[in-house]
TrEMBL record:
This is Ankyrin repeat domain-containing protein 49. PANTHER family: ANKYRIN REPEAT DOMAIN-CONTAINING PROTEIN 49, CYCLIN-DEPENDENT KINASE INHIBITOR 2C-RELATED. The gene is LOC115213297. Keywords: ANK repeat, Repeat. It comes from the Eukaryota.
Length: 241
């Protein structure tokens, strides 16, 4: 069974909201300590950027032995880790600073192929999402399970962000490896507003089925109190025929 499959009233994947690889544990995971470590976070980023600036354009005997190449690789890993964690933790200032230094960090990925956009989306950081989208972050970037940012937004009921993603070209009918569409995920939640927004979209295909052979309507019927929204939408469609 696929990791993100919803079957028979049970949801088996959470969209990895609490993601974070061991390599990117550079900011505190404890929200109570976040304020006290903010300065340390910025200092560490500054030190990494300064280190990279010193290495740029310089060549030593170590370059000939490949030591500098290894060091650059380590710095790149650090930078990727910084922007991923900063995006998840809502550190707009750090995300902005890192992108100014290296625009390629826009589509950095972790071990599961989550990007800064994925992380800011599921964490609900609208301003960071806007920043990343303004820099042309990939709205169709997929994790190893096939989750795009819109899947994360719908699973975690981030309606404002879901709207932004759709405005910026996100595919409302995109399916994960387990066949889940954003509508499947929204249908399994208790959030009425995000379900209404999707159902009103003219490009929506609400008959796509997941790996358990269920369409979003069937998922909602057994897992959400908002099933009636599908009935109302179906009635409206029938009237237009």
């Amino acid at each position: 069974m696929e990791a993100d499959q919803i079957s028979k009233c049970h949801e088996s994947d959470d969209g990895n909201k609490n993601k974070g690889s061991s390599n990117d544990n550079i900011f505190t995971n404890n929200c109570n300590l976040e304020d006290t470590t903010a300065l340390e976070d910025e200092t560490e980023v500054e030190e990494t950027l300064n280190s990279q600036n010193k290495d740029d354009g310089s060549q030593t005997e170590g370059d000939k032995d490949g030591n500098t190449s290894s060091k650059h690789s380590s710095l790149k890993d650090d930078m990727n880790a910084y922007i991923l964690r900063a995006s998840e933790k809502g550190r707009y200032d750090i995300v902005e600073k890192l992108l100014e230094r290296d625009p390629k960090l826009l589509n950095a990925t972790d071990a599961d192929n989550y990007t800064p956009l994925h992380r800011s989306v599921y964490s609900g950081h609208v301003e960071i999402v806007k920043l990343l989208l303004s820099k042309n972050a990939k709205v169709d970037a997929s994790t190893i399970d096939g989750w795009q940012p819109l899947h994360c937004a719908c699973h975690w009921s981030q309606i404002d962000i879901a709207f932004l993603l759709l405005q910026n070209g996100a595919d409302i009918n995109a399916q994960t490896n387990g066949g889940l569409t954003p509508l499947h995920l929204a249908a399994a939640t208790s959030c009425k507003s995000i379900l209404e927004m999707l159902l009103m979209n003219r490009y929506l295909n609400w008959n796509l089925k997941n790996a358990a052979n269920e369409n979003p309507c069937q998922v909602s019927k057994c897992s959400s109190k908002n099933f009636y929204l599908f009935e109302i939408t179906e009635d409206r469609i029938n009237l237009l025929k």
